[in-house]
Design a protein that fits this description.
- This protein has seven helices and 52 strands.
- The chain is mostly beta strands and 909 residues long.
- A hairpin with a 5-residue loop joins strand 23 and strand 24.
- The longest helix is centred in the N-terminal third of the chain and has 22 residues.
- The radius of gyration is 29 Å and the shape is globular.
Length: 909
């Protein structure tokens, strides 16, 4: 039985679901409005509709009709027509698609009472129809039995959404935060996602770019420029998207060349970050079989939103050789210069993508996409800020334990020191930016896919190779005194191939079957520099100032087959049953090749080698009922699986010195979801509602023990997410050009079983009561809230565009998102909470020359709200847990981005 606290929200959502069902079954209103895409009909490039007999008919605009004057037809009072052999009756529904200017408008039109003309009919419509590939085939979002939130190309342009971070800031139930190390990011849906400390932990949300899986968190550095649509698929997605989709998937499709020539140029400037941005697109057909599209974007931030208050400093080192071998205490002061860049990120971003589309026959389509991406910033650790300091260890409350005169604030200000000059000159990993902090990312990839369509089957295949390099150097002590540095270099390579077939028999049964393979190589090198480590007698001079050095690698291979049986029990009821079999193996090694002699009591030289193999079957069953043309209901049972691994960025030390501290088990999920999707009032209102309950096992979580520098990847025994969401899109017929959207989501995400490490300074009276020899003291977090899982999320926005004459139009956009109080710590830390808050975004644009140019002003986080996204103990703060009277560690957080205002000019041809 559901807890009392849970019953009320679910009853509310259930009542709304029944109301939606009743509205959808009720007869639709006969009142219609004229089809108006918001731009002059003369800009229509092409168009077509599907007639009731399945044939296609061309669409012509009013001006084209006037020019042709064929058959004595009248064109007065209409925007678009189609030419038919006979008039069609009132109420006839037609699927249409028209290219107007640079945009494609599609949907379902219903003929009104004035729709019957001599040899022509008027198209009338409400909202456009969004198509999805969530089940590896093109389907209407309203008809697919999947909980999905989508971001259209228009929305991305209106708000200048060019990366996954900015998309998450405006999308309910999706949270992304950047990490200073490890796998570089955490992507969360409904509060399920990994921590970010270990490079060996992959995401629980699969990111799919043009049909290809990207497993690394560093995918957030990949630009989304020139994307046609982003689908956020919530809940397990194993059958169609494979491993590592236990929480959901983000499905991104970039644009292909069209049948018409397209040229776009855009320049923008963001005031607060002092960011200058350029975009360019050239696309079109080479001949009737080949098209090509080239898109490029470059952005350069001359400033940043996180201010660095560091100045010149001194880093004092202790000669380990003199102290241990001669008993002499010899210390040296190394000069630490002021940072060359006074703010973060000061990033540079370059993305180029070339697409070639080849259609040699009506049945065969071949697509090639090549992409190159560069990203750099002033520091990898610039995302961290001290926000909660309880005092202790010589510091007053509100000030850093490591540097007692440095305050803890929440104002996007940090104190990050460059590497000491002499240290940087001796260490190649740290000297990439002449001693300044840095983060450099370079990636490239090529994808080839083909689709062959016959009368009875569609065969699809896709091959991809991707390669990325990431190097960074950061200051991790979060204080004004240089104390903890690290420098890293890593590479990741992946090759994947997939083939699938979907039958299209004219019968009750069809089947999709496919096979997938991926091979990966991940290589990692890191030097950690802290506490004045110095050994002039080191055999390798590059280790002179290194506390410990580590190197590691993992080679992985995935093989899977999947299938889905599609049974149309009746014309309106569909049952699908399928599953995916996974076989995965990983071969890993970790070597700590050097430890400064003064730190052998904490860290040790050595090597670990491991080979891991797993097998899994993830089934899925879905029942879909198309109640009528406007209403679909579904219920599904799903499972998904995420591979285990080896924490190749771990630490070999006295408290984490065996393979058991590096190995972690697979993560899995099972549960139910159901929903209702509706198109109401002649498609002027689209509604989607879903309820879900999922149980996760062995959730993968990283833990960093700041007091002893121990890094461990844990498996939480169990977690549950239960809730529901309602989304709507509304185009009120009384106000042409207005589109309103919103959502309300309830999510109860908690640990059901987790014997977790204690945080720094946690006393037995605070729950730190489990002690095992050789392990960090533990606590029982069963019943605690999952981090990044607010109970309530409310989102509301609108877009309004209207013509103001003389070929000009004006547009407004607004979006707000409210989140209730949520935890920012995965380990139940009492200081890790973000209070309820709301974010406001808005934009205004003016277009002219029949949409050939546009000027826009785009504002994000207009109230400058500071949000904590991830809270962990700051290194070298706090005392060991398990004792009364301990000192809590200082808390550092990854915040959201502050207010930004950008100006943007776009020219199209």
């Amino acid at each position: 039985m559901a807890p009392i606290a849970l019953k009320k929200p679910l009853l509310v959502l259930g009542a709304l679901a029944w109301s939606l069902l009743a509205i959808g079954i009720a007869p639709a209103s006969a009142h219609m409005t004229a089809f108006d895409p918001g731009v002059p009909p003369e800009d229509m490039q092409s168009g077509s509709v599907t007639l009731p007999d399945g044939q296609s008919a061309p669409v012509i605009s009013q001006s084209q009709c006037e020019a042709q004057k064929q058959g004595g037809e009248t064109c007065e009072g209409a925007a678009y027509f189609i030419r038919t052999d006979a008039p069609l009756a009132q109420g006839t529904r037609l699927d249409y698609s028209v290219v107007v200017g640079s945009q494609t408008q599609s949907g379902t039109a219903t003929l009104g009472s004035s729709g019957i003309l001599t040899g022509a009919i008027v198209l009338r419509s409400g909202l456009e129809t969004i198509m999805s590939t969530a089940r590896k085939r093109e389907e209407s979002v309203r008809e697919i039995p999947v909980a999905v939130t989508y971001v259209t190309a228009v929305q991305m342009d209106n708000y200048n959404l060019r990366d996954l971070n900015s998309v998450a800031e405006m999308t309910p139930a999706l949270t992304i935060f950047r990490s200073s190390a490890g796998n570089a990011a955490s992507i969360n849906i409904r509060g399920i996602g990994p921590m970010t400390t270990s490079i060996g932990v992959e995401q629980s949300v699969a990111v799919i770019l043009d049909g290809v899986y990207y497993g690394q968190g560093r995918v957030i550095n990949e630009g989304l420029f020139d994307a046609s649509q982003i689908e956020i698929l919530k809940g397990p997605q194993a059958v169609f998207f494979g491993k590592n989709a236990t929480a959901g998937a983000i499905n991104i499709r970039t644009n292909d060349p069209g049948s018409e020539y397209e040229f776009l140029g855009r320049v923008g400037y963001e005031i607060d970050n002092e960011e200058l941005m350029f975009e360019a697109i050239a696309s079109g057909p080479i001949n009737d079989k080949v098209g090509i599209r080239l898109a490029a974007r470059y952005a350069n931030q001359f400033g940043g939103y996180s201010k660095n208050d560091a100045g010149p400093a001194i880093y004092t080192v202790t000669d380990a050789d003199a102290l241990l071998n001669r008993g002499e205490l010899i210390q040296r002061d190394l000069l630490v210069p002021a940072p060359q860049k006074s703010s973060w990120p000061q990033g540079k971003d370059l993305i180029t993508r070339l697409t070639v589309l080849f259609e040699p026959t009506d049945s065969l389509t071949i697509r090639l996409k090549g992409q190159y991406n560069e990203y750099s910033s002033a520091s990898t650790s610039g995302v961290n800020e001290l926000v909660t300091c309880n005092g202790g260890l010589g510091a007053e409350p509100g000030f850093s334990q490591f540097q007692p005169d440095v305050p803890c604030t929440a104002d996007w200000r940090v104190i990050e020191n460059p590497f000491p000059t002499e240290l940087a000159e001796s260490n190649p990993l740290a000297n990439k930016a002449n001693g300044d902090l840095f983060d450099d990312y370079v990636s490239y990839g090529i994808t080839a896919d083909a689709e062959y369509v016959t009368d009875v089957m569609t065969i699809s295949s896709i091959i991809n190779y991707q390669h990325l390099r990431n190097a960074w150097g950061g200051d991790f002590d979060t204080s004004g005194v240089p104390g903890v540095y690290a420098a890293e270099r890593g590479t990741y390579k992946a090759f994947s191939a997939e083939i699938r077939g979907l039958t299209t028999f004219d019968s009750s049964f069809n089947i999709m079957i496919g096979a997938y393979h991926q091979s990966t190589t991940r290589i990692f090198d890191q030097d950690v520099i802290f506490a004045g480590a110095y050994n002039p007698a080191a055999l390798d001079p590059t280790d002179m100032f290194t506390a410990y050095e580590k190197t590691s690698a993992t080679d992985g291979a995935t093989y899977s087959i999947y299938a889905q049986l599609i049974w149309n029990i009746t014309q309106d009821i569909e049952l699908t049953a399928g599953g995916r079999y996974h076989h995965e193996k990983k071969t890993s090694f970790f070597a700590q090749t050097y430890v400064n002699p003064l730190f052998v009591a904490l860290f040790s030289e050595g090597r670990l080698d491991e080979r891991q193999v797993w097998n899994d079957i993830s089934p899925e069953v879905t029942l879909t009922w198309n109640i009528n043309d406007n209403l679909t209901a579904y219920v599904a049972y799903k499972e998904a699986w995420k591979a285990g691994g080896f924490s190749i960025s771990g630490i070999l030390g006295v408290i984490s010195g065996t393979s058991r501290d590096f190995l972690f088990d697979p993560e899995s999920v099972e549960g139910f979801e159901g929903g209702i999707k509706a198109s109401l009032f002649d498609n002027t209102l689209q509604l989607e509602m879903e309820l879900y309950h999922y149980k996760f096992s062995d959730l993968q979580i990283d833990f960093f023990n700041s007091a002893v520098f121990a890094l461990i990847t844990e498996n939480a025994g169990g977690a549950k997410t239960t809730g529901g969401e309602i989304q709507f899109r509304w185009a009120p017929e009384q106000v042409q050009g207005l589109r309103i959207n919103g959502s309300l989501a309830y999510n109860n995400g908690r640990y059901s079983e987790f014997i977790a490490p204690c945080w720094a300074g946690q006393a037995p009276s605070e729950g730190c009561v489990i002690f095992n020899p050789g392990e960090v003291p533990k606590q029982n977090l069963a019943g605690f809230k999952r981090n990044l899982a607010p109970k309530w999320i409310f989102n509301l926005g609108f877009d309004y565009d209207r013509s103001i004459g003389n070929g000009m139009s004006i547009g407004f956009s607004f979006n707000t998102q409210f989140r209730s109080r949520y935890s920012t710590s995965a380990f139940g830390h009492p200081d890790g909470f973000q209070k309820a808050s709301a974010i406001l975004n808005a934009a205004i644009r003016l277009a002219g020359g029949d949409d050939m140019w546009e000027f826009a002003i785009i504002g994000k986080n207009l109230t400058n709200k500071y949000l904590q996204l991830n809270t962990i103990d700051s290194p070298s703060s706090g005392t060991a847990p398990g004792f009364e009277g301990g000192v809590r560690g200082d808390q550092r957080t990854t915040p959201n981005r502050p207010r930004s205002v950008a100006f943007q000019i776009t020219v199209r041809y």
